[in-house]
Specification:
Length: 190
């Protein structure tokens, strides 16, 4: 499925193409593209936002250099470390947004299914990461937790690019959804 926005006042056109894998069950890809159809040079960055119904547990691989940055809110009670993973627990209406430049281009989210012991595991990944300075916020990965609605967001950011007229920037995000349970999810993090 391909979705294209009308040209905005800066001359930018955003195209998103969603495709289902023909070989991997539960896998899909979102190809984001920003094209400069204007007359001026512009600075842009693609980003991918996956909205998840709470409750959700989101994990990213970290190392000593991975510094979690709080953009707003008070997320301390929602943050944990498990093994070599930073973990963001989105299980309440504490509004916050955090960002990090992770040690891996893969992130995980576990979403329990109400009134069962099962859940869904969402594995997401992007192309290889580059230096943190290449990204708009200095981070390739962010998590937002909403106060107004029962959802959170797992966000991947592409590198900032300067586009001349007719140039384009892209970001490809791949997601795989499988059945899981919290114990199996926690084992992935250890």
């Amino acid at each position: 499925m391909k979705m294209t926005s009308p040209k905005n006042s800066d001359g930018l056109v955003i195209t998103r193409t969603v495709s289902l894998s023909e070989t991997v069950e539960g896998q899909f890809e979102i190809h984001h593209q920003i094209t400069n159809e204007g007359a001026d040079v512009v600075k842009v960055g693609c980003w991918s936002v996956m909205m998840l119904q709470r409750n959700a547990i989101i994990a990213y691989k970290q190392n000593e250099a991975s510094k979690l940055e709080t953009y707003f809110g008070e997320p301390a009670s929602n943050l944990q470390t498990t093994g070599c993973h930073g973990v963001v627990v989105c299980n309440d209406d504490n509004e916050f947004k955090v960002g990090v430049h992770p040690d891996s281009s893969t992130a995980l989210a576990y979403c329990p299914i109400e009134n069962t012991s099962k859940g869904l595991l969402l594995t997401s990944f992007v192309e290889a990461l580059t230096d943190a300075a290449d990204y708009a916020h200095g981070n390739a990965f962010e998590v937002y937790n909403s106060a107004a609605y029962p959802y959170c967001e797992l966000e991947w950011h592409g590198k900032v690019r300067t586009l001349a007229p007719h140039d384009a920037a892209t970001l490809v995000t791949t997601f795989c959804v499988t059945e899981s349970d919290e114990v199996a999810f926690e084992m992935l993090l250890s």
